Amino acid sequence: MTLIKCRECNNEISDKAVLCPSCGAAGASYWWSAEYRSKRTLWGLPLVHVVLGSAFNPVTGKIRVAKGIIAIGGIAVGVVAVGGVSLGAIAMGGLTAGLACFGGLALGVILAVGGLAVGFVALGGAAIGYYAIGGGAWGVHALGENARDPQLLEFFKGRFGR
Question: CA 14, CA 52: separation in Å to the nearest integer?
């Protein structure tokens, strides 16, 4: 542990401190955290809510979640959600759930695209869905190394041209 000067009151604090015990300013380990919440709202939610940095609020100790129409953060919940864990109509991130999802593990009601994709239409390394396309594909209409469904190609041709 190293002692450093608080950037607000100049008292010595640990470099690992989340808050200065004298003035309550964020410590060095927390300096890069930021949060933005737009003043405009829709349905009681901010239009944009961005939470960057530490997953925990240093004052309350609670997990910080970005909640808004557009939500960006480690944990994000919104109509459009981007984060490590995200839940939304359109969700992007490591672990995603919603109507249309894009991520490492994507759980989508309509569309899922990711390493492991589960949804009505699933595209991914491993795809599970009614229509599934991937390295490994499992579903009613699947196209992958393990399955070949000629009706799957007709489905996409009928909806997307050619």
Answer: 22
The strand pair at 45-46 and 41-42 is best described as antiparallel
Amino acid at residue number 132: A
> Tokens 């190293």 belong to which residue?
2
**Residue 146, SS3?**
coil
pLDDT digits (tens, 9 = 90+) for 19-57: 777 877 765 555 456 788 999 988 888 999 998 877 776
* Cα torsion 133, 135, 140, 80: sign: negative
Distances (CA, A) of 154 to 37, 109, 125, 130, 139: 46, 22, 22, 14, 16
Please state the separation of Cα 68 from the chain's center in Å. 13
pTM of the model: 0.72
Note whether 119 and 127 are within 8 A (CB): no
Selection from 115, 111, 145, 159 nearest residue 131 by Cα: 111
For residue 44, give the 3-state DSSP assignment. coil
